[in-house]
């Protein structure tokens, strides 16, 4: 075998197995070959089913609205070419303010998440704290029992947070799940590093920022990704906590356009083309809303495997 | 610098069993003072959980009261189990419970095994490049918001939508699928699988790559073919993680997916689509029927907790694997 001892200073949580084919298995016989062919066919079909909706939305958004409405059956190329729908979407002030609000929620929310989660995970990785166990129990219990929608709503209302951006940031300030992930990573750091820092006169804050955070960067990145994706995709609590349209995040604007079909404000002109244009506007909205995700996707990709692994049940 | 260190403390590897409360409090006070920086870091986190998780738990009391916003939770009048009675005697209780459970049972039956099958297929691929391509494509929908997925689905299942066209080609009626109650569960579970199968497969793949290769070697030397190796080496290797994830999934049998239901359903499909959470949302938030909705929500949480406990017990019995 080719196991090599690595003198890596990284904690075990960071040295996760690389996803690669390890087992060399010579394949013989027609049964095996038939299976391989079938397997590739099935997976190709799966890729098509997964990818085609995105592709369809893209080519449909670029199509002439009326030609698109007339089209039946599988579509592989845009019907005509028109950028009108994109123009309408971009001129919609709600889409722009939605982007700005979402950006604020994602950046501000994730920053708060990370600071609090780091502090909490650090304190709770100190096994010597007398209150470590009770606090941990208190946090874990919230993963299994929640007050429910109505009491949460009443709390946010009583705190005076309705119709403020805090309403979609503060109630989600720490995720018990992510806190436990980060705490496991901190626990996996050899205690020698901390001892050495303490001898050099470092306090808790210095040890957290100078020892634990740099050593657990991969896990921290994954946790940040989980938080950011949740903020970006969230719509439900914005829907119930926010009624001021100026504050609507992108997903709520999307909901109006895609689900409640309120594209009217974006259209003028004769009735005949309106319904057709409404459809292309919807598709163009999907594209505009998905592009940022597609843009960061390649950068996120290297965290995927690690992300799910550290998210796996460790405790 | 008088930063205390563990090494500097009197060593007590086995702390004495619980002493008198006064002694405990004194020790706690010393501990708080000694580790004040760590406790200060912990404070906002504890405050957050107390305020945003435990206060709502206290707030569920309104399920047993006639909540009057002016009087507050403590000042409202007790009504005992009236709201629960009203719900269980209501017209929709059976429909709501059946819909909640059926939607979830279908999701467990079809949605839970799907990533496992995908991981097994990916594991059998010989081409590394093709495997990466499949993974890149199938992970993608996980990052798309539920609003966009619902929007696409509403459009594909509308009149002239591509899914409705497929249904017509297979001999169905040209009515939009999305308005047909008998199609709701299929569309919901199908889109759920579409969105999560790739992402869900990662953890199984990681487990597969962690299986000791010498087990495969040994099986091959013993004359096992591909299928036998899968049954006797791969599947036993996957079993612990499968059972743990299944327990977690079963614990959520009462909750999952209602954000998507709210986007997808309409009064025409309430018959199969309305679940307990969406009912709570309509009555509690939209109609401001706070106490009634809180009672319904509390039933939901209580049953969910019971299901989790039951599933965990079952898993411990069958596989010796438990999440607590």
From TrEMBL, chain B:
Residue ranges constituting the ABC transmembrane type-1 domain according to the UniProt record: 97-311
GO cellular component: plasma membrane
Assigned protein family: Belongs to the binding-protein-dependent transport system permease family.
Domain of life: Bacteria
SUPFAM superfamilies reported in the protein's UniProt record: MetI-like
Protein topology in the membrane: Multi-pass membrane protein
Gene3D superfamilies hit by this protein: MetI-like (1.10.3720.10)
UniProt keyword terms in alphabetical order: Cell membrane, Membrane, Transmembrane, Transmembrane helix, Transport
Organism the protein comes from: Pseudoduganella dura
Residue spans crossing the bilayer: 37-55, 101-121, 133-154, 193-211, 231-251, 290-311
Official protein name in the record: ABC transporter permease subunit
Compartments where found: Cell membrane
One of the protein's GO biological processes: transmembrane transport
Pfam families in UniProt: BPD_transp_1
